[in-house]
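Work Package 3 (structural annotation) set out to generate three-dimensional models for the target panel prioritized at the project kickoff. During this period the team completed the workflow that converts sequence records into discrete structure tokens, so that structures can be stored uniformly alongside our sequence database. As a representative example, we reproduce one entry of 168 residues exactly as it appears in the project archive.
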Amino acid sequence: MVNPENFLSDEIVDGPDDVVGVLTEQIEARFGMDMEQLTAAVAAAPAVHADATDVVKWHGLLTASQAALDRAEDDLLAALETQPSEVDDDPTMDLAHRVNAAVAARDGRAQVVRWLLDPDAPAKKDLAAERLARLRGACKGPAVQTSAPRPPSASPATAPRTRRAAQR
């Protein structure tokens, strides 16, 4: 049995908004523009600054997961308002699980954004970082060969023998 008062604490309800807000401020400070400008700049030229492109992508995923979390919390709170003091039905427990899953998704995406913003983060200055840099540079052309392969030339082409050359 779950006590609904555990879901109504100020820590849970107010905390998530701060995660997105704090990370948004850090992104804006790092790139020197607000998110709207940064998103427009990345949309106009995504290949110019790979770090900005990654940050904008993951910030978008983070805000989407925050919106999903907000909806899940609203649904759970609405269900809890109609419940007696103890939650014992499956639909309400399913809503509680949905909130937990949404928190996990939001927190995971927040960790990715934090990692992207930290230039000294683990794996940014080692072999994995070098491989990532090579991958980013290697993806310029199509993934699949689009023209027929040229056969290797073993020797220069020889002229056909004429009858006169064969008689010598």
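DSSP finds six helices and no strands in the chain.
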